[in-house]
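seq:
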Amino acid sequence: MAAPSRHCLLLIGALGVFALDRFAQGQKNRTLIFTKENTIRNCSCSADIRDCDYSLANLMCSCKTVLPFAVERTSYNGHLTIWFTDTTALGRLLNFTLVRDLKLSLCSSNTLPTEYLAICGLERLRINSEAKHPFPEQSLLIHSSGDCDSKEKPESLGWQTCMYIAFLDMALFNRDSSLKSYSIEDIASIANDFPDFSYFKTFPVSSNKSYVVTVIY
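struct:
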């Protein structure tokens, strides 16, 4: 039997590298952040963890403790899951943060106030309030990455360049109704058009572009 040609060996090697690369992409870790007893745990998990199972997360994921006052504004281009019990810590984690794919799980029966979180670039939202209501997980597609300007690279997006802003009403976790949203395009001034969101008056938002604002409730 003839030995494989050099061309065949190169092709097999290339296919092997491609397969390994695809496998590695499929194995990308997921970011899980949970708040409990005034502490924040930031975890990298190789698999989905059952919602609000703190012991399993500490066992199966690589986690580190972050002090609440040390939380820095950052961006998440991949999937982010947050387990929370109140809106204070959640606000520190999410307000004015770039998140594309977000899941929020309420891990207590607390009644949440009507507070709005402002999230940049949110494309998909999932919520789970099973701790409060026996309601199945809900999912909402807000917009797709294809809607964005192709010249804007995900890693360069920030509040100065973000075109899509989502306002998330935290009181939606008190209700057992379906997740809803509406969007308003061509918003020139968020501070003027949404005066109730006073924090935009002190945060640097560009005034020379228009925004698409989505309210989720």
